[in-house]
C-alpha cells in the first residue's frame, strides 16, 4: 500500500475496501479487480485522486498519460489539478489523425497502443496512469511511446497492483507508485 516516510496513509484502507473482487471474470481463474465500486463511493474516489495529486503537484509534471480505458477515469482530474495536459493512450484505430504505435505482448498474443503525434513534446515530464498493473506489458508500451518522442517518464502510477505477477520488474528503473496491493 502507498506510504510516505514509513507511515501508511489512512485513506488507503477505505479505498481498498471499495474495490470489489469478482472471481472467474472474464475467464476462470481470474480474480477481477473491479474499480466501478470505488467510483460509486465519492469519498473514496476523491481520496484516490487527492493522493495522486498530492504526490505529483510539486514535481513539474507537464503530461498525464492515461491508458485506455480506466486510465481515462483517473488521469483527467489529476491533470487538471496539477496543471498538466492529459494525453490518452489508446488501442488501435481509436484516435483520429496521425498516431505513433507500440506493439506489446499479452499473456496470449499481442496488442498495440497508440497516441497522437505531437501530443507529447521532447522534454515533457510525464506520469503514466492506469487502474492496475498486472504483468506490466501495457505500462511498458506506454513508457516506450513516451521515450520515443523524447519525454521523461517520471513515474508510473496505478490504483491497484497484482504483485504476484511481478509486473514492476518489467519497468526496469522506472518508479511505480501504487495505492493498493492485492494479497
TrEMBL record:
Which SUPFAM superfamilies does the entry mention? PRTase-like
- Name the pathway: Purine metabolism; AMP biosynthesis via salvage pathway; AMP from adenine: step 1/1
Keywords assigned by UniProt, alphabetized: Cytoplasm, Glycosyltransferase, Purine salvage, Transferase
Q: What is its EC number?
A: 2.4.2.7
Q: Where in the cell is it found?
A: Cytoplasm
Q: Per its UniProt record, what InterPro entries does this chain match?
A: Ade_phspho_trans, Adenine_PRTase, PRTase-like, PRTase_dom
GO aspect biological process, one term? purine ribonucleoside salvage
- Enzyme class of the recorded protein, top EC level: transferase
Q: Per its record, what are the GO molecular function terms?
A: adenine phosphoribosyltransferase activity
Superkingdom of the source species: Eukaryota
Entry GO CC:
cytosol
Residues in domain Phosphoribosyltransferase?
42-164
Reactions mediated catalytically: AMP + diphosphate = 5-phospho-alpha-D-ribose 1-diphosphate + adenine
Main localization, broad class: cytoplasm
Q: What family is it from?
A: Belongs to the purine/pyrimidine phosphoribosyltransferase family.
Query: What do we know about how this protein assembles, alone or with others?
Result: Homodimer.
Protein known as: adenine phosphoribosyltransferase
* Organism from which the protein derives: Acorus calamus (Sweet flag)
What phylogenetic lineage does the species belong to?
A: Eukaryota, Viridiplantae, Streptophyta, Embryophyta, Tracheophyta
Gene from which this protein is expressed: APT1
Amino acid at each position: 500500500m502507498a506510504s510516505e516516510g514509513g507511515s501508511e496513509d489512512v485513506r488507503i484502507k477505505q479505498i481498498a475496501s471499495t474495490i470489489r473482487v469478482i472471481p472467474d471474470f472474464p475467464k476462470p481463474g481470474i480474480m477481477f479487480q473491479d474499480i466501478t465500486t470505488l467510483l460509486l463511493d465519492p469519498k473514496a474516489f476523491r481520496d484516490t485522486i487527492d493522493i495522486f495529486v498530492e504526490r505529483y503537484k510539486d514535481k513539474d509534471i507537464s503530461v498525464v498519460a492515461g491508458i485506455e480505458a480506466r486510465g481515462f477515469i483517473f488521469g483527467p482530474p489529476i491533470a487538471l489539478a496539477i496543471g498538466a495536459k492529459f494525453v490518452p493512450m489508446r488501442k488501435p484505430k481509436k484516435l483520429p489523425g496521425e498516431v505513433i504505435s507500440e506493439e506489446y505482448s499479452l499473456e496470449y498474443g499481442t496488442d498495440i497502443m497508440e497516441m497522437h503525434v505531437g501530443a507529447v513534446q521532447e522534454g515533457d515530464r510525464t506520469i503514466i496512469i492506469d487502474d492496475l498493473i498486472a504483468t506490466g506489458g501495457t505500462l511498458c508500451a506506454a513508457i516506450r511511446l513516451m521515450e520515443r518522442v523524447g519525454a521523461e517518464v517520471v513515474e508510473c502510477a496505478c490504483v491497484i497492483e497484482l504483485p504476484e505477477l511481478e509486473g514492476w520488474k518489467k519497468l526496469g528503473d522506472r518508479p511505480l507508485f501504487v495505492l493498493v496491493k492485492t494479497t
